[in-house]
Amino acid sequence: MCGIVGAVSERDVQGILLEGLRRLEYRGYDSAGMAVVNGSNQTQRAREVGKVAALADAVTAHPLEGHLGIAHTRWATHGVPSQVNAHPHMSGERLAIVHNGIIENYQELRDELKAEGFEFTSQTDTEVVAHLIEKHYRKLGKLYDAVKAAITRLRGAYALSVVHADEPDHMVVCREGSPLVVGVGIGENFIASDQLALLPVTDRFMFLEEGDIADIRRNSIEIHDREGTPVERDITRFEHGADSADKGEYRHFMLKEIYEQPKVIKATMEGRVTGSRVLEQALGTEAANLLDNVRHVQIIACGTSYHAGMVARYWIEELAGVPCSVEVASEFRYRKHVIQPDTLFLCISQSGETADTLAALRQAKKAGFRAALAICNVPGSSLVRESDLVIMTQAGPEIGVASTKAFTTQLTALLIFTLALARHNGLAEDKEAEIVKALHLVPGQVSDILALNAGIEEMSKAFMDKFHSLFLGRGSQFPVAMEGALKLKEISYIHAEAYPAGELKHGPLALVDSEMPVVTVAPNNDLVEKLKSNLEEVRARGGELFVFADKSAGVQEEEGIHVMQLPEVHEITAPIVYTVPLQLLSYHVAVLKGTDVDQPRNLAKSVTVE
Ligand code: M6R
């Protein structure tokens, strides 16, 4: 999705803006641009299609010098990726604007502004906002007042940053439905759609709330809320260290993030579990009261986070005996629901800014759910701020578009939550202790799997020339298979479908032949014998099997069956551990195919539009 950076400083801002854009590249984009107000009070602009590197070349050849500037990476929604559609957009020669989000009533505003004589050079919704602000500026003579007046006409979602050459000492920013953070410096201030963009220049951040409008100057930050009341927003410190957004020794962020999993799973457990118990106070002071009264759980999420929710359903129903429903946010938000009394609404999101998930949460809050719990990885995100209770995962910044460490830390947090809920619903103390002990073993087991990397890389060669694949699992391993299939399709572009293995004979078996690799996750559990029969069905049709199993599962390596032996794992924690080899498999297939592993085509890291 689009990214925004802005700076007002005593020093030249071009370098700050460029570095900020580079750090936003992971979000996915198709063009980039910047506008700087120079010493002669002129607004200069550069825009390029393609990578930020192309913009860097352009501004190296013709520098944009000045102390106030805004910049943007665009992910096309209205109008093709092109230079004229790239941001910043301008009205006349002096006002420039960058925008994240979608203006739903842009066509009506465009017609109106055209009739008033404004000329449009792009197909974007953003240019409409630029002209609308300029129109008010001509009447009101102050940028802040003009932005305030203009946004009353906007319907949709936006984070905006606006500069005007007549007011070269500040920018005006606002947000409604799209994230915006202010980076607090010393004698300089910054804004961005994501704090990662600003880590080289500050570690202190103020998250704007919905409806906020702010005047950002070198030495002051003035914020007003939707009602026009002056407000203070807390300053929080970024805790993960500036280098957490660097690849280090790794070839790709995705690989680095896969290898970070033992550490971040452990960090997600810290302070929340003892050797044998979950510390439910660590889930918040309200947790005990809430958990006592939960009779049903409704989980909402998208993509990988949805798969985490699917695993959690098995845990919640098995360990807590509480009915649990799971739905993708984009479906949930557009249908009528029958809400069971005392239903806990649980949102899962790495970014905390996914538009569909946020919309579902907002709807749920109005609809009468008992409370909203968020499992999220980004402190200060909209989801965190708008939920009643939050369990933060400790994955640290996840840059690769393909989610890896966010998923396994979500599962860790969800298991901790499940055990707390289960205790309120009669889970025996020794069972809780058994599972907590198993959870403590997970970081070590994940490290053991990482040590199998070379073998998994070898296995990946069999997928390189394939166009389709199937992923099978049963029980709580079915969502693991779904996650494995999602990873493979999003970064290698190989069509991958996941099925509960028992469904094979109801249709997908017709697809199986020697050109269709079948990946199976098969830890030893109550279902493994049934799963083995399903594998025989595949073999009998000439299918080639790639099986991840522990020794006691008893799956033998033979013609047509490749077995990767994994450590023995507790049945409950197995979904966390079995995910990791599938991440590595997809990674290596993508590297062999030469795709853009960290920024796969057409995808964005944080999906802030519907
Ligand atoms: O930030 P979120 O967890 O809400 O994001 C949800 C999905 O967009 C995300 O998990 C997506 O499916 C990933 N690219 C999967 O790797």
TrEMBL record:
Species source reads Marinobacter persicus
Q: Which GO terms describe its cellular component?
A: cytosol
- Cross-referenced InterPro entries: GATase_2_dom (IPR017932), GFAT (IPR005855), GFAT_N (IPR047084), GlmS/AgaS_SIS (IPR035466), GlmS/FrlB_SIS (IPR035490), Ntn_hydrolases_N (IPR029055), SIS_dom (IPR001347), SIS_dom_sf (IPR046348)
Report the subcellular localization: Cytoplasm
UniProt entry tagged with the keyword Cytoplasm: yes
What terms describe the molecular function in GO for this protein? carbohydrate derivative binding; glutamine-fructose-6-phosphate transaminase (isomerizing) activity
Q: What is its EC number?
A: 2.6.1.16
Catalytically driven reaction(s): D-fructose 6-phosphate + L-glutamine = D-glucosamine 6-phosphate + L-glutamate
Q: Where is the Glutamine amidotransferase type-2 domain?
A: 2-219
Sorted alphabetically, the Gene Ontology BP terms of this entry are: amino sugar biosynthetic process; carbohydrate metabolic process; fructose 6-phosphate metabolic process; protein N-linked glycosylation; UDP-N-acetylglucosamine metabolic process
Q: Where is the signal peptide?
A: none
Its job: Catalyzes the first step in hexosamine metabolism, converting fructose-6P into glucosamine-6P using glutamine as a nitrogen source.
Organism lineage: Bacteria, Pseudomonadati, Pseudomonadota, Gammaproteobacteria, Pseudomonadales
Q: Where is the SIS domain?
A: 287-427, 459-600
Q: What does the subunit comment say?
A: Homodimer.
Protein keywords? Aminotransferase, Cytoplasm, Glutamine amidotransferase, Repeat, Transferase
Q: Look up the coiled coil feature and give its residue ranges.
A: none
Name of the molecule in the record: Glutamine--fructose-6-phosphate aminotransferase [isomerizing]
CDD domains for this protein: GFAT, SIS_GlmS_GlmD_1, SIS_GlmS_GlmD_2
- Is Nucleotide-binding included in the keywords of this UniProt record? no
